[in-house]
Amino acid sequence: MGRLVKAGERVRIAVDMDEVIADSHGRHVELYRRDFGVHLAEEQLLGRRFSEAVHEDHRLAVKQYAHELDFFSSLSVIPDSQDVLARLYERHDVFIASAAMEFPTSFVPKFEWLREYFPFFSWENVVFCGDKSIIAADYLIDDIPRNLERFGGEGILFSAPHNRKETRFRRVQGWAEIAELFLD
Amino acid sequence: MGRLVKAGERVRIAVDMDEVIADSHGRHVELYRRDFGVHLAEEQLLGRRFSEAVHEDHRLAVKQYAHELDFFSSLSVIPDSQDVLARLYERHDVFIASAAMEFPTSFVPKFEWLREYFPFFSWENVVFCGDKSIIAADYLIDDIPRNLERFGGEGILFSAPHNRKETRFRRVQGWAEIAELFLD
């Protein structure tokens, strides 16, 4: 995977939160096992969102998880995101762009989570939106194809089981590949 | 003031909250009178922010007002903004873009305030950011020149005593003038 930017070139990169820096999928798997005693394997999730992959009797309960007050504050960090984002933040203009508007109770927990795990981010570099077409940046790193479709710059798809069939965007498997694209 | 858009042309307009649709200045005046018994006249505010216009012994207290939990939920609506925004929302792509990140306690009250006074806005059309250069839109209506400077589209200055000396942007005196610019 070659570098996307020239030596010395500074670009603006917007970075999604859920599934890109925050492991909300892993938390869904944990909560589902806690509540229903079932472990969902990765192959059951291929091409589907979590709530589509579970038994239909469980769907409503699963859709409530992200509305729970402690959901966002309890998320693990996606591997290598802290280290690579810290280096990207030095080298480029980096914004966190999260579709928090769908879950108003998530605003403060998401903001606090960022302060805890990504303390180098200024509050000026955080955006909570609903529709990512409003983000003015050169690149958007996101796991949801619909967000990349709407975005005006170049979309980079962060690989996840649910987006495995998507072929329209440059795909990265993890933060080490993002480092290769944007760091010297 | 002529129309900015052609008949049938649909543009994207981002609209600031404080001083444009929410009267946070009026609430500052009220709270200052309550706490210090002083009424600040408009001429004392020309070219200055509220906290710069008050007696220096009061400055710290005044800067705390916007951090109070009920500050944003108690704001009055700027005249004509509900009616004109409802019509703009039908005719164009309209987003509310508020620099809420500076005051994390304001996220939920601001969001609830919007739901109460501008219920026609979808959550997808609301953005909380820190730096308005991240907003991708054709126009930004804002009272703060620094926000318009950073914005990539055309800035429209919503007139307020503190920005009276600013000459770099198209100035509107209120929502009736915004209707003239963008409605048929």
Automatic annotation (TrEMBL), chains A, B:
<comment type="similarity">
    <text>Belongs to the 5'(3')-deoxyribonucleotidase family.</text>
</comment>
<dbReference type="InterPro" id="IPR036412">
    <property type="entry name" value="HAD-like_sf"/>
</dbReference>
<dbReference type="InterPro" id="IPR023214">
    <property type="entry name" value="HAD_sf"/>
</dbReference>
<dbReference type="InterPro" id="IPR010708">
    <property type="entry name" value="5'(3')-deoxyribonucleotidase"/>
</dbReference>
<dbReference type="GO" id="GO:0008253">
    <property type="term" value="F:5'-nucleotidase activity"/>
</dbReference>
<dbReference type="GO" id="GO:0009223">
    <property type="term" value="P:pyrimidine deoxyribonucleotide catabolic process"/>
</dbReference>
<protein>
    <submittedName>
        <fullName>Uncharacterized protein</fullName>
    </submittedName>
</protein>
<feature type="active site" description="Nucleophile">
    <location>
        <position position="16"/>
    </location>
</feature>
<dbReference type="Pfam" id="PF06941">
    <property type="entry name" value="NT5C"/>
</dbReference>
<feature type="active site" description="Proton donor">
    <location>
        <position position="18"/>
    </location>
</feature>
